[in-house]
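Tokens for YbjN domain-containing protein. Go.
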Amino acid sequence: MSEQKSDMIEAVSLQYLAEVLQGAGYRTNESEQNGGKQLLSASQGIGFAVRPGNPVGEGPEMLDFTLSCALRIQGTLPENMVSDWNRDKRFSRLTHQVDFLVLEMDVVVAGGVGAGHLRTQVELWDRLMREFLLYLRNYRATGSADDQDAAG
């Protein structure tokens, strides 16, 4: 059996992820937060961050990363908003952190993935962002109708 060259990606750097995002049509900026580097970008007009995960040794490469969107909350959240999202969506998680509603999706490359897999993960994140914004609009509209029913 002959040896074949593997095109599998087993670790990524922020620079490589910036290239993947730019190849998908996103603008990216590298930023520093709490002494660590991350990428900043936007989808659907809403900003998000690409935060490094578990490093490979001491170098710039990592085995995983997190796509994260934090939106500031004004007022109170409907009681089941976070749990309803998490029950219905498989590839992301929604949390309520102090004054923020945070949508996150982890991407793992450990063990090896193809370049197409990374591109698909970016496309999935874009879709989740669209669904998240629609979800927030629908929840707000439902909450407003419920408030009017309760007041009437």
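DSSP finds three helices and six strands in the chain.
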